[in-house]
Fold this sequence. Notes:
The chain is of the alpha+beta class. The protein has helices at 20-32, 64-79, 111-130, 135-149, 190-200, 205-216, 226-241, 243-257; strands at 8-12, 40-41, 44-47, 51-55, 96-98, 101-103, 160-162, 171-174, 177-180, 186-188. It has a single domain, classed as Aminoglycoside 3'-phosphotransferase, Chain: A, domain 2 (Alpha-Beta Complex). It has eight helices and ten strands. The strands form four sheets. The chain has a three-stranded antiparallel β-sheet with strand order 1-4-3, with helices on one face. Keywords: Kinase, Transferase. Pfam families: Fructosamin_kin.
Amino acid sequence: MTSAPGEVFTKHDPDAAPGFFAAEAAGLAWLAAAGPGAAAVVEVRAVTADRLVLQRLHPIRMTRTAARELGAALALTHAAGADAFGTPPPGRPPQGWIGRQPMSMVPTPTWGRFYAEQRVLPFARAAARRGTLRASGLRAVERVADRLVAGELDDGRPPARLHGDLWSGNVVPTADGIVLIDPAAHGGHGLTDLAMLDLFGLPELAAVMDAYAAAADLDAGWRDLLPLHQLHPLLVHAVSHGAGYGDEAERAALRSVG
Length: 258
């Protein structure tokens, strides 16, 4: 079973930024409201300014069947949509976070402008200031951002309801199915969630990707776009984890501009 009644896991931080745990709770509620068949998320039992009380999960080994189910369910979560690119979940504070890093949540009409101005450039510039993204890397990222803002990389897909921080540690296989935790939920492009799974790895990843692509009716060549969507998590990690990620971000940017 996923958890026994009354079993909880408490995240507690007396120094949490105002609205930090409320933002996570709002994101979980929004993802949970995606509808029948969508990806399951951990249940929120209580939230205060300095703590979040969640359903306790009991992880098991990932299976190929569960991975396929996750891919199809994630496509349904994304298809539940959002009002705009960058829009936060209802009831969420205007400030967003990815991990402990602040992240903008301003509704934007086009994905390219949103992704460039609120996800890519702020973290690239922060990494450059820290010395974890070289000048050549910043220039490469800025060239990609110019194309994004110009709309060259928009594909007409509507805003997806994203988890927003979908690395393997936030994907928990249980006896009752896979449960997602710790989102940075917002309106974005569905490939962004897949790109983060691809970047950091997941058991049976190929099954997840194939099932998602079939359920979401992705166009041929969608895998070639993953480096573009990996720019944001790579730059986030460049800020927090060092220059190795900055070098990876530079390579991803160069692949993105062709």
